Amino acid sequence: MRRLMAVFAHPDDESFINTGTIIRAIRDGVQVALVCATLGEEGKTADLCSREELPQVRAEELRAALQVLGIGRLRLLGLRDKQLQHYDRADGVGRVVQAVRELRPHVMYTFSADGWSGHPDHVTVHDWTRAAFRAAGDPAQYPEAGPPWQPQRLYAAISPRTESDRHPIHVRVPVLPYLDTQVAALRCHQTQVPGFVRHVGALDAATLAQTRHTDLWQLLDSTRPLQTGVADDLFTGVVEEP
Description:
Blueprint: E1 3-8, H1 13-16, H2 19-27, E2 31-38, H3 54-69, E3 73-79, H4 89-103, E4 107-111, H5 115-118, H6 120-135, E5 153-158, E6 171-174, H7 179-188, H8 193-200, H9 205-209, E7 214-222
Parallel strand pairs: 1-2, 1-4, 2-3, 4-5
Antiparallel strand pairs: 5-7, 6-7
Helix pairs in contact: 3-7, 4-6
Protein backbone atom coordinates (compact mmCIF):
# COMPACT_ATOMS: atom_id res chain seq x y z
CA MET A 1 0.00 0.00 0.00
CA ARG A 2 1.22 3.49 -0.85
CA ARG A 3 1.71 5.61 2.28
CA LEU A 4 1.60 9.41 2.57
CA MET A 5 2.38 11.45 5.69
CA ALA A 6 1.61 15.09 6.40
CA VAL A 7 3.52 17.09 9.03
CA PHE A 8 1.66 20.19 10.16
CA ALA A 9 1.55 22.53 13.14
CA HIS A 10 -2.11 22.92 14.12
CA PRO A 11 -5.48 21.22 13.93
CA ASP A 12 -7.18 22.53 10.75
CA ASP A 13 -3.96 22.76 8.68
CA GLU A 14 -4.81 19.34 7.22
CA SER A 15 -8.25 20.56 6.13
CA PHE A 16 -7.14 23.94 4.78
CA ILE A 17 -3.89 23.31 2.92
CA ASN A 18 -3.94 21.39 -0.41
CA THR A 19 -6.59 19.09 1.01
CA GLY A 20 -8.09 18.12 -2.34
CA THR A 21 -4.92 16.22 -3.23
CA ILE A 22 -5.21 14.19 -0.04
CA ILE A 23 -8.87 13.38 -0.58
CA ARG A 24 -8.06 12.14 -4.08
CA ALA A 25 -5.14 10.07 -2.79
CA ILE A 26 -7.29 8.41 -0.13
CA ARG A 27 -9.95 7.57 -2.70
CA ASP A 28 -7.20 6.03 -4.83
CA GLY A 29 -6.26 3.74 -1.97
CA VAL A 30 -3.35 5.65 -0.43
CA GLN A 31 -2.95 5.30 3.34
CA VAL A 32 -2.59 8.80 4.79
CA ALA A 33 -1.22 9.73 8.22
CA LEU A 34 -1.07 13.12 9.94
CA VAL A 35 1.56 14.36 12.38
CA CYS A 36 0.31 17.47 14.21
CA ALA A 37 2.72 19.37 16.44
CA THR A 38 0.25 21.28 18.66
CA LEU A 39 -3.41 21.39 19.63
CA GLY A 40 -3.73 25.04 18.62
CA GLU A 41 -4.48 26.11 22.17
CA GLU A 42 -3.65 29.75 21.37
CA GLY A 43 -6.21 29.88 18.56
CA LYS A 44 -9.66 31.45 18.57
CA THR A 45 -12.55 30.00 20.56
CA ALA A 46 -15.38 31.59 18.51
CA ASP A 47 -17.12 31.82 21.90
CA LEU A 48 -17.83 28.08 21.69
CA CYS A 49 -15.71 27.12 24.69
CA SER A 50 -13.42 28.55 27.31
CA ARG A 51 -9.71 29.10 26.73
CA GLU A 52 -9.01 26.19 29.10
CA GLU A 53 -11.31 23.90 27.15
CA LEU A 54 -9.92 24.84 23.75
CA PRO A 55 -7.16 22.18 23.44
CA GLN A 56 -9.62 19.35 24.07
CA VAL A 57 -12.22 20.91 21.79
CA ARG A 58 -9.70 21.34 18.97
CA ALA A 59 -8.52 17.74 19.39
CA GLU A 60 -12.14 16.60 19.00
CA GLU A 61 -12.60 18.85 15.97
CA LEU A 62 -9.44 17.41 14.43
CA ARG A 63 -10.57 13.82 14.85
CA ALA A 64 -13.94 14.66 13.33
CA ALA A 65 -12.25 16.27 10.32
CA LEU A 66 -9.95 13.26 9.85
CA GLN A 67 -12.98 11.00 9.77
CA VAL A 68 -14.52 13.14 7.02
CA LEU A 69 -11.29 13.10 5.02
CA GLY A 70 -10.53 9.43 5.59
CA ILE A 71 -7.17 9.99 7.30
CA GLY A 72 -6.78 6.94 9.50
CA ARG A 73 -3.59 7.57 11.47
CA LEU A 74 -2.83 10.53 13.74
CA ARG A 75 0.24 11.36 15.82
CA LEU A 76 0.10 14.35 18.16
CA LEU A 77 3.50 15.70 19.23
CA GLY A 78 2.03 17.55 22.23
CA LEU A 79 3.99 20.77 21.80
CA ARG A 80 2.81 24.27 22.66
CA ASP A 81 1.04 26.43 20.10
CA LYS A 82 2.94 29.58 19.05
CA GLN A 83 6.09 28.34 20.81
CA LEU A 84 7.61 25.93 18.30
CA GLN A 85 10.42 28.25 17.25
CA HIS A 86 11.60 28.28 20.88
CA TYR A 87 11.90 24.49 21.20
CA ASP A 88 15.22 22.72 20.85
CA ARG A 89 15.59 22.05 17.13
CA ALA A 90 17.26 18.65 17.55
CA ASP A 91 14.38 17.51 19.75
CA GLY A 92 11.80 18.77 17.25
CA VAL A 93 13.54 17.01 14.37
CA GLY A 94 13.78 13.87 16.46
CA ARG A 95 10.06 13.85 17.15
CA VAL A 96 9.35 13.96 13.42
CA VAL A 97 11.98 11.28 12.76
CA GLN A 98 10.27 8.98 15.27
CA ALA A 99 6.93 9.47 13.51
CA VAL A 100 8.50 8.76 10.11
CA ARG A 101 10.10 5.55 11.33
CA GLU A 102 6.86 4.40 12.92
CA LEU A 103 4.54 5.29 10.02
CA ARG A 104 6.99 4.48 7.19
CA PRO A 105 5.65 6.84 4.50
CA HIS A 106 6.79 6.63 0.90
CA VAL A 107 5.96 10.33 0.43
CA MET A 108 5.87 13.20 2.95
CA TYR A 109 4.59 16.75 2.73
CA THR A 110 4.58 19.86 4.88
CA PHE A 111 4.48 23.66 4.65
CA SER A 112 6.56 25.66 2.18
CA ALA A 113 9.65 27.48 3.46
CA ASP A 114 7.57 30.61 4.05
CA GLY A 115 5.10 28.61 6.10
CA TRP A 116 2.25 29.03 3.58
CA SER A 117 1.07 32.07 5.56
CA GLY A 118 4.27 33.18 7.29
CA HIS A 119 3.19 31.73 10.66
CA PRO A 120 6.35 31.06 12.77
CA ASP A 121 5.05 27.65 13.85
CA HIS A 122 4.57 26.70 10.19
CA VAL A 123 8.09 27.84 9.28
CA THR A 124 9.53 25.82 12.17
CA VAL A 125 7.65 22.66 11.18
CA HIS A 126 8.94 23.06 7.61
CA ASP A 127 12.50 23.23 8.95
CA TRP A 128 12.08 20.20 11.22
CA THR A 129 10.46 18.12 8.51
CA ARG A 130 13.05 18.94 5.90
CA ALA A 131 15.81 17.82 8.28
CA ALA A 132 13.88 14.73 9.38
CA PHE A 133 13.38 13.50 5.80
CA ARG A 134 17.04 12.45 5.50
CA ALA A 135 17.69 11.84 9.19
CA ALA A 136 14.95 9.19 9.33
CA GLY A 137 16.88 7.03 6.89
CA ASP A 138 20.23 7.42 8.63
CA PRO A 139 20.84 4.77 11.33
CA ALA A 140 23.48 6.98 12.92
CA GLN A 141 20.91 9.70 13.69
CA TYR A 142 18.36 9.33 16.47
CA PRO A 143 19.02 5.59 17.04
CA GLU A 144 16.54 5.67 19.92
CA ALA A 145 13.73 6.61 17.50
CA GLY A 146 13.45 3.15 15.95
CA PRO A 147 14.76 1.34 12.86
CA PRO A 148 15.63 3.69 9.99
CA TRP A 149 13.15 4.35 7.21
CA GLN A 150 13.90 6.52 4.19
CA PRO A 151 10.92 8.15 2.45
CA GLN A 152 11.34 8.76 -1.28
CA ARG A 153 9.84 12.20 -1.77
CA LEU A 154 9.24 15.33 0.34
CA TYR A 155 6.87 17.99 -0.97
CA ALA A 156 5.83 21.46 0.16
CA ALA A 157 2.27 22.65 -0.29
CA ILE A 158 2.31 25.99 -2.12
CA SER A 159 -0.31 28.64 -1.46
CA PRO A 160 -2.27 29.83 -4.52
CA ARG A 161 -1.64 33.35 -3.22
CA THR A 162 2.13 32.90 -3.57
CA GLU A 163 3.96 33.99 -6.71
CA SER A 164 4.99 30.85 -8.61
CA ASP A 165 8.46 32.23 -9.34
CA ARG A 166 9.23 32.05 -5.61
CA HIS A 167 8.44 28.33 -5.50
CA PRO A 168 9.11 26.06 -8.49
CA ILE A 169 6.03 23.92 -9.10
CA HIS A 170 6.66 20.21 -9.70
CA VAL A 171 3.14 18.81 -9.26
CA ARG A 172 -0.26 20.28 -10.12
CA VAL A 173 -3.32 18.35 -8.96
CA PRO A 174 -6.82 19.30 -10.23
CA VAL A 175 -9.11 19.11 -7.19
CA LEU A 176 -12.52 20.55 -8.12
CA PRO A 177 -14.32 17.21 -7.51
CA TYR A 178 -13.07 17.14 -3.92
CA LEU A 179 -13.92 20.64 -2.68
CA ASP A 180 -17.26 19.64 -1.15
CA THR A 181 -15.45 17.14 1.05
CA GLN A 182 -12.83 19.72 1.95
CA VAL A 183 -15.55 22.15 3.03
CA ALA A 184 -17.15 19.44 5.18
CA ALA A 185 -13.79 18.85 6.88
CA LEU A 186 -13.23 22.57 7.42
CA ARG A 187 -16.64 22.88 9.04
CA CYS A 188 -15.60 20.27 11.61
CA HIS A 189 -13.20 22.91 12.98
CA GLN A 190 -16.05 25.03 14.31
CA THR A 191 -13.89 27.18 16.56
CA GLN A 192 -11.85 28.27 13.53
CA VAL A 193 -14.64 28.77 10.98
CA PRO A 194 -14.75 32.59 11.41
CA GLY A 195 -11.05 32.71 10.52
CA PHE A 196 -11.58 30.55 7.44
CA VAL A 197 -14.36 32.86 6.27
CA ARG A 198 -12.16 35.93 6.73
CA HIS A 199 -9.42 34.25 4.73
CA VAL A 200 -11.33 32.75 1.80
CA GLY A 201 -14.79 34.34 1.91
CA ALA A 202 -17.87 32.14 2.10
CA LEU A 203 -17.08 28.61 3.22
CA ASP A 204 -18.49 26.66 0.30
CA ALA A 205 -17.13 24.75 -2.68
CA ALA A 206 -18.02 27.44 -5.21
CA THR A 207 -16.00 30.06 -3.33
CA LEU A 208 -13.05 27.74 -2.77
CA ALA A 209 -13.07 26.85 -6.47
CA GLN A 210 -12.11 30.42 -7.36
CA THR A 211 -8.62 29.93 -5.90
CA ARG A 212 -8.36 26.24 -4.90
CA HIS A 213 -9.21 24.46 -8.16
CA THR A 214 -5.63 23.18 -8.47
CA ASP A 215 -3.25 22.19 -5.68
CA LEU A 216 0.34 23.27 -6.21
CA TRP A 217 3.32 21.31 -4.88
CA GLN A 218 7.06 21.95 -4.78
CA LEU A 219 9.45 19.02 -4.49
CA LEU A 220 11.81 19.77 -1.60
CA ASP A 221 13.86 16.58 -1.55
CA SER A 222 13.93 13.18 -3.24
CA THR A 223 15.92 9.97 -3.11
CA ARG A 224 14.72 8.87 -6.56
CA PRO A 225 15.24 10.31 -10.06
CA LEU A 226 12.75 12.99 -11.01
CA GLN A 227 10.34 12.88 -13.91
CA THR A 228 10.54 15.55 -16.58
CA GLY A 229 7.83 18.19 -16.72
CA VAL A 230 5.09 18.83 -14.20
CA ALA A 231 3.35 15.75 -12.76
CA ASP A 232 -0.27 15.45 -11.64
CA ASP A 233 0.30 13.01 -8.76
CA LEU A 234 2.58 13.05 -5.70
CA PHE A 235 3.45 9.38 -6.30
CA THR A 236 4.73 9.76 -9.86
CA GLY A 237 8.04 7.88 -10.00
CA VAL A 238 7.70 6.48 -6.48
CA VAL A 239 8.30 2.77 -5.95
CA GLU A 240 6.05 1.04 -3.41
CA GLU A 241 8.06 -0.68 -0.70
CA PRO A 242 6.77 -2.81 2.20
